[in-house]
Every structure is written in C-alpha cells, then in structure tokens.
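Entry 14. Two folds queued back to back today. First construct below, sequence then structure tokens.
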Amino acid sequence: MSGGTGTGVAPGAPPASGAMTAETAGRLVEEILDRLAGSGDRTACEAAEELVRVLMDFYGAGLARAVELIGRHPGATARDTLAALLGDELVAGLLVLHGLHPDDVSRRVDRALDRLPHPVESAGFDAATGVLRLRLTGSAGCGCAGTREGIEQAARDALACFAPEVTAVVLQEAAREPALLQIGAGPPRAADGGRSPAAAP
C-alpha cells in the first residue's frame, strides 16, 4: 500500500475539480521534465523538451489566429465570428483535437472539401474503416492518375485538421457518358425497285 494521506492523488496532480490553470500546467510540465532529467536518459529528456516546444508553438499559433479572426471584424455578430473560427484550419484543428468542434464529422468533411480547388463532394464516409469516398462534380482536368492522386492528396491535407476521423480518401471513377450514335441520311434510292443508280444496268 502507498503511504501519504491515502487520498490517491499523485504528487503535482491538478485540483480535484479538474480546473487547469497556466500556473498548474507549467508546474506539472516542469516536474515531469525534472523526473526525466533525473532518470539519466538524456535522449528521452531531450525528446520530451522538444515535444513541449512543439505543442507550445501549436497552441500559441492557434490562439494567435483566433485573436486575429475575432479582431478582424469587430462589429461582426457572434454567429459570424463563430463561423470564421470554425472555418479556419488551425483553429478548427484545435477544437477537433479537444472534442470542442460543434459540427459533426459530415459537416466538417464538407467544410474541408469546400476549401479544395477541385469540384468534389463526399460520396460516403465509412466510420468503421475511416475511408471517405469522393466523386467529381465537374471537370478537373484529364482524369489521369497524376490528377487523381493530386486531388486525393489535397483532400487528405484539408481533412487532416477538419476531420481526422478520415484515414483514407478514394476518388471514384467518373461515370462515362454513353457514346452518341450519329444517324445520317441514307443513300438515295432509285425509282426502279430501290436500287441505287450505280447498280442500274
């Protein structure tokens, strides 16, 4: 059995209420880094410090973008401001990461596809496999493999922030239009029983 007060609360743990302040978070990070440094594993310690720096940069950029978007149109309504935040790739990525984005996966997929330069739409998302099928809604070039791969990659890049539930993108083959049969006028028929003039004796 462990000693202490018997509360089961680990040293340095955040308050039981679940509230996390900047001071508490900073102290916890320092304690974790100190424990790693004390383990003598320099590689792990350096990796942890790099991870903290990356996360700080990510969250800092997200907060900066949110402030920018909110201040861009001071007179905007709350609805318009929220729409701007939800439609921004960086801010939306943070909201999705923490389960705070109010849109469901279908709407977030549509938001991502709206950002693409290619005319595509969702043809169905399989939540069990993470596969999103797309179809072209207009002309997008020659339809060759390179074009298809470019469209799929652009979709994956946009979906990474808006809908990380999508793990694979498949662009469906465009339906081929049936060939048109050209029906022209038949050869002139002669009065003598329908034979052509060339066949007449």
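Second construct, same run, same settings:
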Amino acid sequence: MPTLNIGKVRYVWRGTWDRTASYDILDRVRDDAGFVFEAIKAVPAGVVLTNENYWIKLSVQGPQGDKGDTGNEGPKGDTGEAPTAILYTPQENLTDEQKGQARANIGWDRGFTASFAPAADAYLIPILEELILENGGTQQEIDDIKNSEASGS
C-alpha cells in the first residue's frame, strides 16, 4: 500500500518564544505576557511575534468570573427551516450547486483572505487528505478532487 506523507498535522509546543530560535509551521510559543502564538509557516530566527506574516495570535482564556443573575426569558422564536441544508453520506456525491451552497454556508469565499489561504492550505489540506484515506477513500479520489479544483470545475 502506498504511503502518503502528510507532514505535521498538529501543533508542537515549543515553550517560551526565543528570539534566537527558528520555528516550523504549527509550532506554538508563549510570550512574556502569557499569550500563545502559532507559526503559520517556517519562521526564521528573530521574527517577532507581532509579525502577522509568520505568526497568528491564539486566544487565551482568563479565569472564569462569578455567575451573573438570570435575565428575563425572551419570547420563543420561530423554528424555521433550513431549505439549503445539505445532508451528506459517503455514498452520495454533491452536485456543483450543493458544493457551492456548502462553501457559502461555511463562508469559504469571505473567510479566507489571500494572505491566510496559503497557511490554511498547508494546514488543512493534509488533514483532509488523511481523513479521506481513513474513511475508505483512495489516493486516486484525492487526486481527482485536486485536479477538479485546479481546472475550476
């Protein structure tokens, strides 16, 4: 069976940021104030944590505060329907219209700016490929998807 090297698929904790160290994609560090940053691509030594071309600041959670008073109960809302919902099972293939709707539902077009898309591709595509393989997909199916996306269909 062929082997697919998907590279690093999860973060590596590197501790406190060191100006003299270089970092790889998905390396995580902490600054002196306790904020956590993740490398979105290979980081040469000396690149500061505020450089958004290399680092993304991850949110941190402080201690939980006291529970507040319960507010007034609001009116019950309409249950509504989701006419554009897409149900997917591995036996189905999505139509181009369904693919477009799914992308719109997750905000694909507006969610990934040109500056973040390469980092997202480097992070997400290997994970998605591994998921396809783990769920019975083949490398040929992965290649077909890539070729379909590259040709714009």
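Quick look at the second one. The first helix runs from residue 96 to 105. The radius of gyration is 21 Å.
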